[in-house]
Amino acid sequence: MAGLATVFGSGSMTNSIAEIEDADVALVIGSNTTETHPVISTFVKRATLGKMKLIVADPRKITMTNFAEIWLRQRPGTDVALLNGLLNVIIAEGLQDQAFIDERTENFEELKKTVAGYTPEKVEEITGVPANSLKEAARLYAKAESATILYAMGITQHTSGTDNVKALANLAMATGNVGRPSTGVNPLRGQNNVQGACDMGGLPNVYTGYQSVTDPEIKKKFEAAWGVALSDQVGLTVVEIMNAVDEGKVKGLYIMGENPLVSDPDSNHVEAALKKCGFLVVQDLFMTETAKMADVILPGTSFAEKDGTFTNTERRVSMVRQAVEPVGEARSDLEIINDLASRMGLSWTADTAEKVMEEIAELTPSYAGISFARIEENGLTWPCPDKDHPGTPILHEGKFARGKGLFTALEHREPAEAPSDDYPFTLTTGRILYQYHTGSMSRRCEPLEYMAPRCEVEINPDDAAEIGVNDGDQIMIASRRGEIVAAVNVTDMVPSKVVFIPFHYAEAAANRLTISELDPVAKIPEYKVCAVTLKKVVNAEAGAEEEAKAAAQ
Amino acid sequence: MSTEQTLTINGKKVNFTPGQTILEIARENGIDIPTLCYLDRCKPTGSCRICLVEVKGARALVASCAMPAAPGMEVQTESESVIKARRMVIELLLASGEHNCMTCEANGECTLQDLAYKYQVETVRFARPMEYFPTESNNPLIIRDFSKCVLCGRCVQACNEVQVNLAISFGYRGTRSKIVTKGDVALEDSDCVFCGECVRVCPVGALVEKKARYMGRSWEETKIRTTCTYCGVGCQIYLHIKDGRVLRVSGVDDGLPNQGSLCVKGKFGYEFIQSDQRLTTPLIREGDGFKEATWDEALDMVAKRFLEIKEKDGPDSLAGLTSARVTNEENYLMQKLVRTGFGTNNIDHCARL
Question: In the beta sheet, which residues pair with residue B207?
């Protein structure tokens, strides 16, 4: 998000989901689309039955590769080199859109200088992607009438995450694939309302609609509207908050609808920090791993028990409607926060979701035209600056939100933690189709749990043979930060020396292993790369047998 | 460049664009031609023969879903011969399986039932098959009842042309025809990803959601339109409610962005809503455990403690984590509370995770 905001002026999906189907070429990178955004994957797969040519860049042999014209299997953590390589070929062969570059962008010369060093041969050395495949992919993407890029956490969850995103923007701008239908740079957001939570100012540096907390004029506007003095200091991010709790600097923490003990990197550290927290309030649907550590637990309600709106990955604001009564004495989060505000001496007046949206619209230029009455049917995509505005499915038409699109010269940097003799495998984490996030919802649904009841670690057949494990065996995975035990899934989905673990399972929490090293700008942890070692788990009985056998010999 | 041409349907002159089928033109003009195997967004197969119409001068009745219109065509959609042919088709379909509406989940939303009703097909003169492929009901998601399958192929098209999961196809031959996975294995052992699109398009009761079976008739349910709570796609869904319980979930046909499609989580992942593991009352820590509390007790304590910490250690000693799961309105209020009540910008959520 931080990456796109810097170079385009807005950090969201540039184009709408429906447009994907009409693109001539799609580049899917760092997105296991069929598992994490299944319905979006159908748009891409349908299109490949027609004219679309698909390029997939992913270390794992994901289902999307079955539909791909070209599959670039880069080593984890080498995306900048890969994308620089594509640009190297495009510029060397004169396939760039010079008119677009001249009119709409700046800093192309700097980019040109840097990518000149990323010849296909050098990129093959860094990424493992054959030079010829790289060339073919570059030509396919650059020559397309319309080419769209779809990416997800496989791009952002690296210490170089912001650079990765900027590299994608470079590629799109150099070929004029921004600001037109079926083009763009499109981050697929992982959670139902992650776009909305960002839009609503659930971030330490901005109020609603990305209005900076350090801008005196903006601050004045919010002070006038809310009737209190506000801080002009940028606050702490999630990982920084956990560190501050650990250091005793943050003493009171209010967590709503999150389970950081399972979702955050280096869970052992998070657990130690939360134990020290002076006063912890957790508001959730279930007794989550995090809730168990709270001083006070407040029962909230699910999406089916309340009214409101979600904003999806394409910036579409859609209605959420109450369908059933809250269970027991549970209350909607809106009601709880309002009540708490009044007990803290604040006098707020918006007591329904509709009235709160009116307040949001008043204070947020990009939501100014949004109201419940207008989004009854199919919602509206922001920016929607006034009550008659039809919404904006395509961003940056004619002009970038920041004026000129900014090319960024980027160098490849190795991930924070490289494999070593002691930790020779690269661990990459992510999601699977049948579970969701920390599993507090999906694992309580029998159909989903039936299909994926346990944590399975994907291991390449060569590695499995070397370690001596078979499908279904228990294996211990250890990093410098912790260890877990999970079942083995022997599969060529992962290349040799790379293992994949889904992070949904608290009993085998992948985040006990992950590293909390952050991207310096976006502060996203490097979930996609850390070093681990694997060890076959011998259960007591089998162990005794083997010992007996050894003794007999 | 005008490419409009005309034909007549039931004596009425209508315009069309070359390439359009008779069915498409009729629908555009509000003329109802019944269909069964025809599936929107897919290539017409013309296999069920329900959409037969009479075209003047043609040797036989034609399947309107697959027949491109020609200028000057004269089409009859409900002539005597058309009705006679449709009744025969319906009778044959009814004879092909155990179409017993009494306990069928499709009762009330079944295309075959509607057709039999409309064309008054009461008795079936043909013998039913002696045996069927066994019903598959081992997984808790989808039941496949082959005794009710009319082999229309809509599920096959939905799987291959709409969702492109390529999990099912026609298998075997003739009277032994069956919709099969690769190798005719059970769904859970196949490439099926349980998106439920096949269930959505099944025009009869052959594909049924197991959890919703015997829980309520379609006309007893209230449908509430809302937005799915899983990933960021924001699929438009209906929650089907009976007696205050969520019975099942379906996609909103013309809803954006999903156009009716769902994935396994959106379709089959609703039980958490009314799970008996839900927290139902505020809890306050007591030693290693918790004691139940009233909202007044809990919220007074929370307000008091936060204000004490703010007073003693300053606003920046407080922080809040808002949520990518709750509504925009709730997120707005949370950051407002942290910024105004706590007095700090220490507010974030797991967008990065």
Answer: B144
